[in-house]
User: Fold these one by one.
Assistant:
Number 1:
Amino acid sequence: MRKTFAFVSFLGLFCLSVSAHAGEEPVILGQFDDWNAFSVQEEGGKACYMSSAPIKSVGKYTRRDDSFLTVTHRPHHNTFDVVSFEAGFTIRKGSKPTLKVDRKKTMTMIPVGGFAWLKEEADDRKMVADMRLGGKAVLNSQSARGTKITDTFSLKGFSRAYRAIQEACGRDK
């Protein structure tokens, strides 16, 4: 139930932010186990993204908005495989959120407000490759109040959701 609520909340917020710019609502490309894939018409062209809510969150927080791990393609900006994290809280300034798939290399993210991104385009590509083969992703972050939070994301369905956004917004499009 929480995942469904989180998914609907995310979709609603995304629709509001996108519709303010382009007047279009996201189209659901599919639900793939723990991942959902979408396309949306943005100003300048079509974008595709996939997202998942954490299956487990550990931390001593009292209140938190929904959080998501997302991969986005924006062919009209020539950007693909952009990995981002919506924390559901303001991330502590100066902190270094980390993302790790299974026993692969831990990658540091750049926080801005309630979001975080990987540093380099090559990191995004490597992380997506690891996620396609992995079982779970673990994201460690710290709230503005100093609370340390660990979110675990299932990667079940990741590869199929990724194929869906590739087909809808791949480099060939």
Note: Residues 29 and 38 are 5 Å apart (CA to CA).
Number 2:
Amino acid sequence: MKRTQWLWLTLSVAGVAFAGCGDDDGTPVDSGTADTSMGGDAGGDPECALEGQMGACCYRQSNASQLSAPELRIAYLQLTEPAVLASPIIANILNEALREERFNWLIRLEGADADGDVTITTGYGRRSETATFAFAMGDADPPGAGDRWDPQSIAGTLTGESVTTSSLTDVFTVPVQDDDGSVILELPLRGFRVVNATMSEDRSCIGRGITAVRFDATSGSVETYITVEDAKMGEVNAGGITASLCNILRGSLAAGLDDCDNDPRSEWATPPNATCDDAGTCTLGGCTAETCNAWQVVGNFAAQGVDITN
């Protein structure tokens, strides 16, 4: 059975469409603020959510012995744009799935022996019973292309412990799953780039945990895009609610699976604000509500060391 939180998803989307949502500053309920150093709280390491997690960011594996190729999993997301993804309710849904390792977005940094060019591999990871992870490789759940969850590689630059990347031209999809493994949401991402990610000295953390439900996410920031056409293909079907991702992003849950373009884009509560071309290049602005074809997604993140087995 899908989680009852999807009822709250309905309310939050409706709130975006008719009255706005979340706190005035768009900060998720559990975002937390505190000393932004890489260590734990003054009293020591944070309280971690699951057995086997440890250290300042509740990592499962330290990267101290593999500084040239650290492996991490996103532990916390604090999205700020678009408005519906910045909703505290949706933030809590995403972060509960991250906390329970049902939303597994992996990152591997390669060639990090010294400052300069590096490669970032990122994508969905399947969790094993022993809490190791493996990138999906052609085995995405149907319907849809079997390789849509496969990892993608991005060129990046390492300076000290900080990483930035270029923009990824290929689309990749990261699923969010329920307790039974069924998919409750997929995020099809284009133009993805790491704006900045600063790792701890042992490269086991980006940001740190404060408690099991609160992270400092100021050490990592990302930018990506979801196109209208990609969002039309995504479907949320949970708790008696059936709607396309497109209708959710534009703030019209009541439209269900109807084509988003049945309504003029100028009338959408949250119209797209960017353009992605056939070559995979996405640009914010420079278009109208009618000619924009994508939403820019912006946010901060924290990450924790894990063992990626492939």
Note: Residues 5-227+295-305 form one domain.
Number 3:
Amino acid sequence: MSQKIDLDKIKEKVIEELKNIYDPEIPANIYDLGLIYDIDCKEGETGAKCHITMTLTSPFCPVAESIVNLVKNIKNKVDGIEELDVDLTFEPPWTQEKMSDEAKLQLGML
């Protein structure tokens, strides 16, 4: 019998890794900036299958590809992830209201 996957723990670790990814134009991580709309982890055959829905501060972000690739690379950093897909969307558009208080504090907005 296979071992039960702790999806909550994997999701927590994914969030920890997301907090290590920074938008180079803004000194705050992409999670606290509110760029992550959803993290959905389900049980797969050999591990978790995670799907991340995210956006960017602008559809014209010059580092869009590198940020998305950093998010995809989380699969290689968190044990127990079998598959990780990233869906980049601009609906709804990102606004400063999506930022955490921590990010607003970092950016001098509080």
Note: The helical segments are 7-18, 64-72, 101-106.
